[in-house]
Amino acid sequence: MSSIFSRIVRGEIPAATVYEDDLTLAFMDINPVARGHTLVICKEEYPDLFTLPAEALVAVARTTQHVALAIRTSLSPDGLNIVQNNGASAGQVIFHYHVHLIPRWENDGGPVRMGRHHESTPTDLQAVADQIRQQIAR
Ligand code: AMP
Q: Model pTM greater than 0.70?
């Protein structure tokens, strides 16, 4: 049984991708808590931080910084939260290692609460993905 993120890696379901390399993939969260909410995943499926090989952890960390710099330049947020959940009790829903990048703006409603969502259509997600991807391509 493979995760929904493995299905994205294999191209079986669509995602608004902003970056890809041999080990990692970055795409827009389908239910963003803020505009530009991006996920970075390890392409190979490991459930969580505890099971992830160090090499994959480093690859995800490098992509996280790469995408974060592109988000900063393309969307000009005032800040950025990095969130990584491990276990259902910590709020993990997809058991395939991933990091959340959540741009933040002054007066945007306070600290991240994963229950708060930014209304987005697939077109909205594609538009913001284009903005970040174009920055990465520069
Ligand atoms: P977590 O609670 O850390 O496991 O986060 C899982 C995240 O995956 C949630 O923020 C979901 O909105 C997001 N998500 C679930 N399915 C998809 C999908 N098909 N494409 C993009 N993001 C997704």
A: yes
